[in-house]
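Input record (Table S2, row 320):
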Amino acid sequence: MPVSSAVTDLLTAIPALKMTRNEPLAQYTRFGIGGPATVMCDALTPAAFEQALAVVRAAQAPQVVIGGGTNLVVSDSGFDGVVLRYTSAHIHGEDTLTLRVDAGAVLQDVVDHSIALGLKGLQTMTGIPGSLGGAVYGNAGAYGKSIHELVTRVEATDGARMKTFSNGECEFRYRESVFKRHKEWLIVSADLQLSRGDPEGLQQQAGEIRAIRDAKYPPTMKCAGSIFKNLIFAELPPGVQAEVPASAVREGKVPSAWFLEQAGAKGLRRGDIQVATYHANLIYNDGNGTAADVKGMIEDLKRRVRERFGFAIEEEVQYV
Ligand SMILES: Cc1cc2nc3c(=O)[nH]c(=O)nc-3n(C[C@H](O)[C@H](O)[C@H](O)COP(=O)(O)OP(=O)(O)OC[C@H]3O[C@@H](n4cnc5c(N)ncnc54)[C@H](O)[C@@H]3O)c2cc1C
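Output record (flavin-adenine dinucleotide complex):
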């Protein structure tokens, strides 16, 4: 059994940790898909998060950390192990340009908080759902900006110790970080360096972005945002570069939606899993979709692009 009763006994004894069994993960993912977690733990303090991780790692039980579940495809059979969430959501730093934010904070709350304080830098990330921890892990961003431009320091734990990562040590790249490649480190908090701005102007910019985003991703849509990463134009095979119109290249990147559209992705359907008719890189759950159908659709889309263009597109979405 991947999670023994000795492990659950130890987890139950950790202060500020809430443990549940057979928790349906569908309710923790924006896709609304996913079977049960054998054990789920919500850690409210850094100590609880670290101790839970230490217990699980010592027992060599399967473990995964989730945030807001907005970039996840969780298997229909769930996760036979321990799903950890860090739910501490404090935002510190009222009087400075640096906010220290707990990984469990909702990114939109951080954006709103920064705007209210007249701090500039996060306003273009308005409407990106999920937690601060998830955003740092995947170097989330939009409108030409990514969170790595603001991060000066990340605190993370491997269950044995807390470690501080500088921006350079986070090894950020487009939708990449050291935490994606070294899953032993779980993010506890991040420092974000902002600058002075005018709250009204920032609010207006955020409001305009929000309206555009809400039209593209209606708030009730069961999805994970963009399924595939965009492509760096300079890294594409020369033959493919020649096919991409200049108008499709933005800030050195080609949206994977462009390739998907050429490959006939728009409007495809598999069970209740639908590719949007207006956006080829947006797959949503149009009812009672399954992870098997999401996975099947993703494989079909990858195959179509490979056959049409001869290269592979890569998922942004993460699997559990
Ligand atoms: C409608 C919609 C629009 C979106 N638009 C954008 C966009 O414009 N730009 C963009 O970049 N993304 C976008 N996304 C994707 C998603 O919002 C981001 O990837 C987000 O940062 C994920 O955060 P989360 O807390 O939900 O992470 P989850 O989905 O819960 O997890 C994602 C990954 O992060 C890891 N993780 C989470 N917390 C931690 C932690 N504390 N320590 C270590 N690893 C952790 C998980 O293990 C998992 O691998 C969109 C998603 C949706 C649904």
